[in-house]
Amino acid sequence: MLTPSSRPRATGRGFTLVELLVVIAIIGILISLLLPAVQAAREAGRRAQCGSNLRQVALTAFTYHDALQTFPPGLDQRDFGSSPRYRGTSLFVFLMPYMEQGNVVLQWDYAQPLSNTTGGPIARSATVISTLICPSDLLEQNPVLDGGRYFGMTSYGGNGGTRSSYPDFASVDGIFHTTGPGSFPNPNQQPVRLSLVRDGASYTLFFGERNHWDPNFESFAAAGWTSSLKLLGAWAAIGGKRRIADVTMSGYSPINCKLPFDYQSRGAAVPPAGSQAAFSYYEDLRVCAWGSEHPGGANFALVDGSVRFMSESTPVVTLRALCTRAGQEGADF
Fold first, then answer.
1. Angle between helices 215-222 and 276-288 (to 10 degrees)
2. What residue ranges do the domains of the chain occupy?
3. pLDDT in tens, 303-330
4. What digits encode the pLDDT tens for the residues 15-37?
5. Residue 211 · residue 107 · CB < 8 Å
6. Residue 194 and which of 3, 63, 74, 125 are 20 to 30 A apart at CA?
7. How far apart are CA 26 and CA 12, in angstroms?
């Protein structure tokens, strides 16, 4: 018979502190190895969704063309002759009925475009359209408040050719530009038909992405030298003169172009950026630029309806060839 003192004792023991720390360290290493893969998978999904959005916008523009025999204007602009002088209707407003968003523009005021901003955050211009937003775009607010008016934002823009800003020097060699009596650089410009895309639909850009993130540029906005990029890209761009930049980009700058210096370092810039007038050169470069938060490049829809991811290392000469509709340049990409 076993007495209490003669019963066998349990031989198991718990983890020591050292062993527990080793296990925690191993788990931490495994998580650190796994996180980049998870983030890469998520970004791949966001990039694919972005490409799908662009394809949908491109197909919508073709539906518009089938109905009206032209692509929509980039910005159909009127010259009212007094302040506020230039007001118009953007390409995305024209596309809304063909994007199953006809209710958004059902009561749109084309004669007095500024009236579409009345109503504060529930104004017609403030509507957020999910198809027009890239999941990777760093939009802190949507809609945004700009000059007392609310605007829904877009991550995409139409092909404005070799240059889409500043309007006085803008090209009309892309797919979308200003039209109507207040158009630039010439009054009464007309929208583009598919028959005018003579470089080939497979070698001409249609729509692409815009990058809203540039801390160096924002430092100049904070100093009052320019407007924040966070306010650029209103799908319902009403006007005035420079608002074509909200809905188009161009081959004027490389893909993912960002300002290489901040406000405090402006004195070392080449060419100089020591004054607000001199800075306008850099402002135009940045405002025109295609780009995205996808690593290494941006998504584009071509006029043939295909979607491609183009590297940020694409030479500017190639990008400009792809932005012209009838330049007869070679564009191997």
1. 140
2. 40-323
3. 999 999 999 999 999 999 999 999 887 6
4. 687 777 777 888 888 777 766 76
5. no
6. 125
7. 24
